[in-house]
Design goal:
The complex is a heterotrimer of chains A (about 500), B (about 140) and C (about 325).
Chain A: H1 7-17, E1 41-49, H2 55-65, H3 82-85, E2 88-94, E3 102-108, H4 118-125, E4 135-144, H5 147-150, H6 159-167, E5 174-178, H7 187-200, E6 204-206, H8 219-237, E7 242-246, H9 252-264, E8 269-273, H10 278-290, E9 294-298, H11 303-306, E10 312-313, H12 315-325, E11 329-331, H13 343-354, E12 357-358, E13 370-371, E14 379-383, H14 391-398, E15 403-405, H15 408-411, H16 417-436, H17 441-453, H18 457-466
Parallel strand pairs in A: 4-10, 5-6, 5-15, 6-7, 7-8, 8-9, 9-11, 11-14, 14-15
Antiparallel strand pairs in A: 1-3, 1-4, 2-3, 12-13
Helix pairs in contact in A: 7-8, 7-16, 12-13, 14-17, 16-17, 16-18, 17-18
Chain B: H1 16-28, E1 32-38, E2 49-50, H2 61-75, E3 80-87, E4 94-102, E5 110-116, E6 122-128
Helix pairs in contact in B: 1-2
Chain C: H1 23-30, H2 32-42, H3 47-68, E1 80-84, H4 90-103, E2 112-115, H5 117-120, H6 128-139, E3 143-147, H7 162-175, E4 181-186, H8 188-197, H9 199-204, E5 207-211, H10 216-229, E6 233-234, H11 236-250, H12 257-279, H13 285-289, E7 290-291, H14 293-297
Parallel strand pairs in C: 1-4, 1-5, 2-3, 3-4, 6-7
Classes of the chains: A alpha/beta (about 500), B alpha+beta (about 140), C alpha/beta (about 325).
Chain lengths: ~500, ~140, ~325
């Protein structure tokens, strides 16, 4: 710096650190000229300031509160390389078609985060800042995780490719079902459902998120009966089968105990719920990696903060965190089923699970190029209100690297669970066969199903039973950028 | 019984025309198509015998069908034969599609053996009935 | 079992005998005229070859039309032999032939796999069958071009593995006529002896096409096209020298028609470059694109030597 110019910064510096309250934008949290470094973590927030609050100041406040700042100037900043540690809001754009909301781009230096800890990352990025009074609402829309940060995580314990190798199942979606009713079955009755579904043709059955160890069924009973069912179905079909044993429990010690028992029984897969928390998830992922176990994650509870567009955390961020944290399966939406899921947004989640590099795609809600640096692929799971009659739509939308979970669509079959499972499997195989032959499954799907049902009575019955079931409600979490529609031909 | 390994086991046995279409799909994707056979249908029997090497430079399914028919001449009726496709793309580098194209006329299935051990635990063993006979004399 | 996918049966219904087929329209629809135009553009002369090609195309077109009226016999044999001296355009025509067959629907992919004996015949026992099959598999859906096919057959060596390759070839040529077309190529006299010794091949080859040597005018025209494509011209004196070069070279051994012309021009370009470089004066664009008589006349051909490439003995000017 030349001597002539020292006067100004010196003066500025004095201002910056004089005691009292100062606007965040003046404390260095707003730097419109800043160019993010390749190693910076970038967060994109949807900021809705209180009336009268300037959007730039609100965004700078978000940068401050999610990094080094507090409400007042502190002299202790000057004991640190505070310029480096300050998060920098470098861009604020109005949200299209949404007056009063802004997209704020904030860059964080890599040194702000502990290696391999989602807890630490989330404590910074969504720690205090979401309750900050000058904001009406705040949503974490997306994050760009730099390769340098991605490499501090192990990623999925198993991943799609190795899961397929272990199960010896290639070229088609996997089929699953959640045992119903969710609650109340005894261990013995529960295992019956598992056996029927697996023997009928499913690859997996699944505990529901709230099946842990209740009075009607203790966990050991469930595990023992389920593994009897799995082994019996395996011998009946000559095909590898599995059931997601939910090891979610009140303490880590209990979870480890359940996981060890599942392993001892020869299960290929265990399951946890998102509500156990990021640290518990990472612990179980490390355990799964040590023990050659596929780790299924049920996203229980996510809709409390992912569903509303104005406030919370987008599920695409949760997806990224979970791929880092190291789970192998994640429920990522069905589009056509009973649960929330806009097709474009959902496509974005699926890409984040399965691709090695996900390019920016605003129409899918993907704000940044996301490199995964060969982190293993996370198998998305489509579950909730889907049935065999939608097979063509599901495969068209979701591709083949997905677990399709037909709970009601299997167990609710009028001729029984085996018939329901068989109907789903026949529909699936016929559709994959037709797709590979080059047929337009989206348009010819119903015909293909009808043709397949000619040699499969259970499929015919399933198509008759559920032919009119659809869940056509508008989604709440949709992309803000619509693909440009051009006049066709 | 009918073992249900592979992508299309729940459908009626594929015709040669259908098999050729699946093979062409694999070739069009740039995957190497491979023919394998075995007379041990155990679900954990990963390594079926290779019929020659995976076919890397074939452009038309007829090339694979030619080898499949050669393999059938030697083993059809007495062995399972499957077609599988390998994708060498980075971050996949494994099988992309696998399906059975021939199976023995009679599939006797599997015995499930249970060994009761402590704490109500059971150790399970799946054993193909066919494996009671030596290799090559099973079907 | 087609219950699953319900493919419409591929066999089209037989057209009523009264219906008429517009062959010209069919020809246009296949896009064959472009292929023939390209052939005329790319290949100088070869009038009899081009005529045969059109005849074969017409035959296949008529076969297709006949099939529509239910008049078809068994699927036609399409294997061919291309005979002629080196450099007479056999490979280029084979490439076009693959495209013609593809457009008419007689091969599914239309690629050309070019091989010689070494690609088919192995060096130890058990090596040949997999090698031959590997090539056949690769060629399926297209055309297999076996250059100097007679080398497959070596009666003087009783332990020759070529016989094994021949047997596999014959079997596939007979049984998988829908899957590939084989073209056997080489010198006319040797091919004749080969067919004589292997009647199995003769009976399976439907079309024999003879590739004549180029006339001097045609060779000159080929030279003109080669230079044009590389943005060179000859001065009038150079042209005169080149005409003389052609008539001399043509009578010498190892003459390979178009290929010899290309080689001669490559060498002339070398000499031109050297001439311009050593002249030690600035050069114009005109200088850079013009071959002079001296660039041609420096050839050994004018002093009774052979201008072959790679050089046969001795050093090269």
């Amino acid at each position: 710096m030349s001597t002539i110019e020292t006067a100004k910064p010196a003066e500025k510096k004095r201002d910056r650190y004089s005691a009292g309250v100062m606007e965040y934008r003046k404390m260095g949290y707003w730097q419109p000229d800043y160019e993010p470094k390749e190693t910076d973590v970038i967060a994109l927030f949807r900021v809705t300031p209180q009336d009268g609050v300037d959007p730039i100041e609100a965004s700078a406040a978000v940068a401050g509160e999610s990094s080094t700042a507090t409400w007042t100037v502190v002299w202790t900043d000057r004991l640190t390389a505070c310029d480096k540690y300050r998060a920098k809001c470098y861009r604020v754009d109005p949200v299209p078609n949404t007056p009063g909301s802004w997209f704020a781009y904030i860059a964080y230096d890599l040194d702000l985060f502990e290696n391999g800890s989602i807890a630490n990352l989330s404590a910074s990025i969504i720690g205090n800042v979401f309750g900050f009074k000058p904001l009406k609402a705040l949503r974490l829309e997306d994050m760009r995780l730099p390769v340098a940060y991605v490499k501090t995580f192990d990623g999925p314990a198993t991943g799609i490719v190795v899961e397929r190798e272990r199960l010896d199942k290639f070229g088609r979606p996997l089929l699953g079902a959640t045992v119903k009713p969710k609650l109340g079955l005894s261990g013995r009755n529960y295992g019956r459902v598992v056996y029927e579904a697996l023997k009928g043709g499913l690859d997996f059955t699944k505990d529901d998120e709230n099946i842990n160890s209740q009075q009607f069924m203790h966990w050991r009973d469930r595990f023992l009966y389920c593994m009897e069912a799995v082994n019996k179905a395996q011998a009946a079909t000559g095909e590898v089968k599995g059931t997601y044993l939910n090891i979610t429990a009140g303490t880590m010690e209990d979870m480890y105990e359940r996981a060890e028992f599942a392993k001892q029984l020869g299960s290929t897969i265990v399951m946890i719920d998102l509500v156990i928390g990021y640290t518990a998830i990472q612990s179980m992922a490390k355990w799964a990696r040590r023990n050659d176990m596929i780790l299924h994650l049920h996203r229980a509870g996510h809709s409390t903060y992912t569903r509303q567009k104005s406030h919370g955390v987008s599920f695409r961020v949760i997806t990224k965190w979970m791929r880092l944290a190291g789970v192998d399966h994640i429920h990522a939406g069905t589009v056509v089923g009973k649960l929330e899921g806009d097709p474009y947004t959902t496509k974005g989640y699926y890409d984040l699970c399965r691709e090695d590099f996900v390019p920016q795609n605003l129409a899918h809600g993907i704000f940044f190029d996301q490199p995964w640096a060969s982190t293993r692929k996370l198998m998305p799971v489509a579950s909730g209100g889907i049935h065999a009659g939608q097979m063509h739509q599901l495969i068209d939308l979701l591709g083949e690297d997905v677990v399709l979970q037909f709970g009601g669509g299997t167990i609710g079959h009028p001729m029984g669970i085996q018939a329901g499972a068989q109907a789903n499997r026949v529909a699936l195989e016929a559709m994959i066969l037709a797709r590979n032959e080059g047929r337009d499954i989206l348009n010819e799907g119903p015909e293909i199903l009808k043709a397949a049902s000619r040699h499969c009575l259970p499929l015919r019955q399933a198509l008759d039973t559920w032919k009119d079931v659809t869940f056509n409600y508008s989604s709440t979490d949709t992309p803000d950028f619509v693909p440009q529609v051009t006049a066709a031909e | 019984m009918r073992i249900t390994q592979g992508a299309f086991s729940f459908l009626p046995d594929l015709t040669d025309e259908q098999i050729a279409k699946q093979i062409q799909y694999c070739i069009n994707n740039g995957w190497a198509v491979n023919i394998e056979f075995t007379d041990d249908p155990h679900p954990r029997n990963t390594y079926w015998e290779l019929w020659g090497l995976p076919m890397f430079d074939v452009k038309d399914a007829a090339g694979v069908m030619f080898e499949l028919n050669e393999c059938r001449k030697a083993y059809a009726g007495r062995h399972y034969i499957r077609v599988s496709a390998f994708d060498a793309t980075h971050t996949w580098e494994s099988v992309r599609l696998s399906f059975i194209v021939n199976r023995p006329e009679n599939e006797p299935g599997f015995a499930l053996e249970r060994q009761e051990v402590d704490g109500r635990n059971i150790r399970y063993t799946t054993r193909p009935y066919a494996a009671n006979q030596p290799e090559g004399a099973r079907y | 079992m087609d219950a699953i996918t319900e493919d419409p049966k591929t066999e089209a219904p037989i057209a009523p005998a009264t219906e008429a087929v517009d062959l010209a329209a069919e020809f246009a629809e296949t896009g064959l005229s472009e292929v023939f135009e390209e052939l005329d553009r790319d290949l100088v002369g070869l009038a009899p070859v081009k005529k045969r090609l059109r005849e074969i195309a017409a035959l296949l077109l008529v076969d297709r039309a006949r099939a529509r009226f239910g008049l078809e016999a068994a699927s036609p044999t399409l294997h061919m032999s291309f005979t002629g001296n080196p450099g007479t355009g056999k490979t280029t025509v084979a490439l076009r032939m693959a495209e013609i067959l593809h457009r008419l629907g007689y091969v599914r992919k239309g690629h050309l796999v070019t091989v010689t004996r070494d690609d088919l015949v192995g060096q130890y026992i058990g090596h040949t069958a997999p090698k031959t099959k590997e090539i056949l598999k690769r060629a399926m859906g297209g055309v297999l071009f076996i250059d100097e096919a007679y080398y497959l057959y070596r009666p003087e060596n009783e332990r020759d593995y070529g016989q094994e390759a021949i047997e596999i070839l014959l079997q596939v040529m007979e049984n998988q006529r829908d899957d590939l077309v084989v073209i056997l190529a080489g010198y006319a006299d040797r091919m004749e002896r080969f067919f004589h010794a292997n009647p199995g091949f003769r009976s399976r080859v439907a079309h024999h096409i003879d590739f004549p040597d180029y006339s001097e005018e045609e060779l000159n025209a080929i030279g003109g096209r080669i230079l044009g494509a590389m943005n060179y011209v000859m001065s009038p004196k150079a042209e005169e020298a080149f005409a003389r070069y052609i008539s001399l070279r043509k009578e010498q051994p190892h003459f390979a028609n178009g290929r010899s012309i290309r080689n001669a021009l490559d060498r002339a370009r070398l000499r031109q470059a050297n001439r311009l470089f050593t002249a030690g004066r600035p050069v114009t664009a005109q200088d850079l694109r013009t071959l002079e008589a001296e660039d041609i006349l420096a050839s050994r051909v004018f002093s009774g030597g052979i201008d072959s490439y790679p050089p046969i003995g001795g050093t090269h000017p």
